[in-house]
Structures are given as C-alpha cells and as structure tokens.
Amino acid sequence: MNLEERFNFRVSPSDGWYALVDCNNFYCSCERVYNPSLKERPIVVLSNNDGCIIARSNEAKLLGIGMGEPYFKMKSILQKHKITAFSSNYELYGDLSHRVMETLRTITPYVEVYSVDEAFTFWPHRLKPTLDALRQFRERVIRWTGVPVSIGLAPTKTLAKVAAKVAKKRADGCYILEEPDEYLLQQVEVEDIWGVGRRYARKLRKIGVHDAAAFAKLPDDDWIRSQFTVVGLRTVYELRGISCLGLEMLEPERKGICHSRAFSQPITNYKEMREAFFTYLTRASTKLRSRGLYARAMQIWLQTNRFAEEPYYSNAAVVQFPVASQDFFEMSQYLEPMLQSIYTDGYRYKKIGILFLDLCNETGIQPDLFDNIPRTRNAALLNVMDRLNSRYGKLTVHAASCGKERPWEMRREKLSPVAPNWRQLAVVKAK
DNA sequence: TCTGGGGTCCTAGGACCC
DNA sequence: TCTGGGGTCCTAGGACCC
Q: Which of A28, A176, A271, A423 lies 20 to 30 A from A234 at CA?
C-alpha cells in the first residue's frame, strides 16, 4: 500500500533537490548593511517595545547572549561587553528581504519565500547544482544585497534545513547533504529538527529518541502517526530522504490578518483605551487594504499584564459584518459597542489586538440589499489616506478617534537612524 | 519600571441531519 | 426495556513555524 492511501498524505510529485537559502542573523545583518562600522562588532536587535532580544550577531552569541532574553535583565551585561542594541525596524528588514528574494529569482524561477529570512529553491535532478555553483549563488546575494547567507542542498526540505545548519559553520557557507547521512543526523538534536517543537522533543526524549537519526529509524509508522499526527510522520519520511513537502511558489491566501501589540505603559482609563483601539483598527485595516482583502468578521481583545502580580483579566468580542469590508469608517461603528462590552474599569491593561477573519478578495463580496454605507466614497477617501501615510509615514493622516498624544505607544529608543524605505528617504532629502 | 508579534495546520469532540 | 450508524460542519485546543 502506498503512503497516500495509508496515511493520507502525498509524496512530492517533483523529485529533485531543495536548497535552503538562509540569511545569517538576518536582523543584525540588516543593521550592518546600513552601518558597516558595526561589522565584526557584537550587536543585538530587540523586539517591539524593546522587550527582549530577538536577534544576535555571532559575536554576541559567543559572549553568551541568549535568544529571547528580556532586555531589562541583560542591560548591564550588554554594557559590560560593549554590545550595541537596536530597536527592531521591520520596514527596513522587509525591504532588504525583498531584495534578497529578487536576487534569488535572477538565479532560478523556482523560489519559495518561506519567511522573511529564508527561501527554498528547487532543482530537478539534471540541474542539480555543484558545490561550486552554490558558492557562486551565495556570492551574488552578498554582493548585491550586503546580506550574508548560508545555503544547504539536500533531497528533501527537512534535510535541506539540516544542510543549511552545517553550511553556517563552514567558511564557504555552503553544504550539500547527498543522502540521509547516519553519522551527521546523529549530531542533530531532536529539538533542532524542523517540525519538532518543545513538546514533541520532550516526548521523543522520554522514549529514548535523542537525535534525528534515531527519529528517522523508528520502526512503526502507524505509531508515529498516532503520536505525532501526520505532520510528524511527514517529518520522519523527509529525514529518511523521501520528499513529502513540495515547493510552494504561490503565496497561500491568508486566512486571518491580525494586529496586536503590548503598550509601553499600561492603560487604565476608557478614553485612552478607545483611542488605542481606533489606532490599532487604523493599522489593521490598512494592512487589509494593502493586500486587497475584505473581512467578513472582526475580533477584538484586551488583556492585562500576564507577568505582573496583579489580578489577570482578559476579554474578547466578535462581530460579523453584513458585507465583507475593508472600510475603516464602517468598522469604526462596530468597534465602540464591542469595546464597551468587554472593557471593565479598574484594571491596568497591557495589550490589545484586532483580528480579521473570514477573508475574501473583491470578487468574493456578497452585496446586501439594505446596505446604506457610502462605500465608494469611503474607499476613495481611504485610498488617499493610505497613499499619504505610505509616503510621509504611518498615521500622518488619521481619524480624530485615534487621539493625539498616544503615551502608550511602542517604545523604540534604540532605533537606528535610517529612513525605513526609499520613498521616505526621498522625503527626508527633500526637506 | 521593563518579559514580541503574526501566522498555519491537525485532531477530537459536539451538534445536527437522515 | 430497547439506546443504530454514518455523514458533515464547526469549534476549541494543541502543536508547530519564523
């Protein structure tokens, strides 16, 4: 019996070679592109609100700086080792990410953008790249973008992930894993396997499986499926060299769009909370419009600080729109009553969010007979606002409901002095 | 004082139908 | 007293990713 019938999954129709191109310490590398004097110096990049450390240069890793450490706990250690910290600048990173991906597309059309700092490329057997070719690809990306990358080539995506990890430790930044190499897979701890998270890793260790080679060798496929679902079984097959995950070049349609963020300081009154929600709605609906999507439902939520030693409170509300919408002004009418239904006085709120669900594009909209929203007029106005904000910076023009002061806004004290995108750079120059 | 944000996929179980 | 069986749809929760 074949795998498809037995376990309900398909083996990749396109047999060949997968190369994972992985940007090294991506956010740190981006900061260096705009400030070359940081080269070979230890640096870290912080999460929103300068909360914790989410990227480290090799030098910082060597100094023992851990991933995800809260910044306030590490401040003195960073100072002691003269490690420079940066607030994250996602517009800048997105821009550089795009340039890396475009460079890869000059090498092959078979590119899957897997994340902001990773891409898979596919090569049929007869076009399998040599190690020398991989080195040239790598050189091109570095020369054209300034971002250093590692490239791992293997017969499956999961093995390409392993190969890229090996590549990262090599001087030439490239590695080819010809086949599932028993000795090499023994060096890969279960936690480091792509698709195995903390929970599954603990479960595997408990039964005496400590490395990728042992995982691949588990004898009973039905048992693996029962314990780790079909996803885990796929991982095992991929480790065995049987490709189950193909290249996905088309960006999948989004199922939800979300905007959520912690405040720099807690909100304790309704007026500020209202302004915060309208600001978040502005950002979330802008995201929706920029992707050409419409939502049929909207969820909002708020919560207090889950780390603080004070009573925890969280609440949420959902609304279905009569007609799928991307219209900030229409949504605004729903927002206030929703907020009133979940807001309770007397708490110190730390984080809120807005989630759009049940998305469709323009052709999927079902009109409503009794619709009385001036959609065309609102759309035209929002279009102008979006263009102004993209040129002159977010929230340059916005509804009055967003408030003026916004003291709760995200902290970004360590932002590098770089215009976040080209158009804004032009504005800065023109001043 | 300060602890990220934004996604996807799979499964089990309940509701409901005939 | 007897307490079907099979199908679909939806949701919550758990797992994972960067």
A: A176
Q: Which residue is nearest to nucleotide B6 (CA to C1')?
A: A258
The residue-averaged pLDDT of A319-345 equals: 93
Residues A51-71 pLDDT 10s: 999 999 999 999 999 999 999
- Rounded Cα distance, A155 and A245, in Å: 11
pLDDT tens, residue by residue, A365-383: 888 878 888 888 989 999 9
**pLDDT tier at A419, thresholds 50, 70, 90:** low
| Closest residue (Cα, C1') to B4 | A47
Closest nucleotide to A194 by C1' from CA: C17
pLDDT (mean) for A71-75: 92
Count CB atoms within 10 A of the CB of residue A206.
8
The dotted CATH code for A256-364+373-402 is 3.30.1490.100
Distance from residue A253's CA to nucleotide C17's C1', rounded to whole Å: 17
Architecture of domain A26-89: 3-Layer(aba) Sandwich (3.40)
- Cα separation, A321 vs A298, in Å, equals 8
- The CA–C1' separation of A227 and C16, in angstroms, is 15
Q: Check if residue A197 sits with its Cβ under 7 angstroms from strand C.
A: yes
When pLDDT is cut at 50, 70 and 90, the band that residue A407 belongs to is: confident
Residue in the structure block whose two tokens are 């490329």: A121
Q: Is the domain A190-249 a CATH 2.60.40 member?
A: no
- Strand C at less than 7 A from CB of A237: no
